[in-house]
């Protein structure tokens, strides 16, 4: 089966036998880049948890037709994970968003941390946020996700403190912490905020502010990870830990 494709207006009443049409950039990508052929099976999603699997009926750079074979729905997974990602350098930013999307992040909050080298201001900031959104969309399609992660507006440190204070559980990844993330209590947690610092690390003031707002600091392991990979590793650990702790409670 091919990777997924995106349509913003997937009809609510779509059913088997209907035809879903890809147009514009998606059609061109399917026909020219991916070289889809009639008879191939593809997934098409609206990025909000709904999609279809179907067979390609017609292929043209301006229009691709897919006959619906099955209706797909992606249930909400708990905990819902928000990652506060300190702004990495451009190439590493794309890698961070791509990896976090593949492992199941629900929302990414770009954060202008004190030691972030990159600065989002004015039109550049809007363009950068839009680019993160495009990277997340492409990574979602590659991973066959039916729910695309939300890219929030740029947050200041004060915004992050407010987010931590309002959250049920907030976990800060800190290179000088010795308590492993595996010890975080996640049974029954519906929402989880993960904070990932920049290349230069978190400042003492940032760490203290987050702790004062209710966050706990944890270690991702004995080695220091780059900011571009730390978020994905943290998400994977939290997903696995939450499942294991919940299964233990059920038994």
Quick structural summary:
This protein is α/β, with parallel strands linked by helices and 251 residues long. The protein has helices spanning 24-33, 90-102, 122-142, 157-166, 204-212, 227-250, and strands at 4-6, 19-23, 41-45, 50-60, 63-73, 80-86, 107-111, 150-151, 169-173, 191-196, 216-218. β3 and β4 form a beta hairpin.
What is the molecular shape?
globular
Give the CATH superfamily of the largest domain. Answer: SPOUT methyltransferase, trefoil knot domain
The pLDDT mean sits at 93
β-sheet strand percentage: 25-35%
- Class derived from helix and strand content: alpha/beta
Q: Please state how the strands of the largest beta sheet are arranged side by side.
A: 8-7-6-10-9-11
Give the biggest sheet.
6 strands, parallel
Number of helices: 6
Oligomer description: single chain
> Roughly what percent helix?
25-40%
Radius of gyration: 20 Å
Number of DSSP strands?
11
The CATH class assignment of the largest domain is Alpha Beta
CATH topology of the largest domain: Alpha/beta knot
CATH structural architecture of the largest domain: 3-Layer(aba) Sandwich
Low-confidence stretches: none
Please give the alpha-carbon distance between the first and last residues: 37 Å
Number of domains: 2
């Amino acid at each position: 089966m091919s990777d997924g494709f995106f349509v913003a207006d997937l009809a609510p009443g779509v059913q088997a036998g209907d035809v879903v049409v890809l147009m514009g950039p998606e059609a061109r990508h399917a026909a020219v880049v991916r070289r889809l052929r009639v008879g191939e099976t593809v997934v098409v999603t609206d990025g909000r948890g709904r999609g279809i699997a179907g067979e390609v009926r017609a292929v043209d750079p301006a229009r691709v037709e897919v006959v619906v074979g099955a209706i797909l729905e992606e249930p909400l997974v708990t905990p819902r994970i928000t990652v506060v990602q300190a702004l990495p350098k451009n190439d590493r930013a794309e890698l961070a968003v791509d990896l976090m999307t593949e492992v199941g992040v629900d929302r990414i909050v770009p954060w202008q941390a004190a030691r972030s080298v990159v600065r989002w201001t004015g039109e550049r900031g809007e363009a950068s946020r839009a680019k993160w959104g495009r990277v997340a969309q492409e990574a979602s399609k590659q991973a066959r996700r039916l729910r695309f992660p939300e890219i929030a507006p740029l947050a200041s440190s004060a915004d992050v403190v407010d987010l931590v204070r309002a959250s049920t559980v907030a976990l800060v990844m800190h290179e000088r912490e010795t308590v492993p993330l595996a010890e975080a209590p996640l049974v029954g947690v519906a929402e989880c905020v993960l904070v990932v610092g920049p290349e230069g690390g978190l400042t003492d003031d940032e760490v203290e502010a987050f702790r004062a707002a209710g966050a706990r600091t944890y270690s991702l392991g004995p080695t220091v990870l780059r900011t571009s990979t730390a978020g994905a590793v943290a998400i994977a650990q939290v997903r696995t830990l939450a499942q294991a702790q919940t299964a233990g409670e059920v038994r």
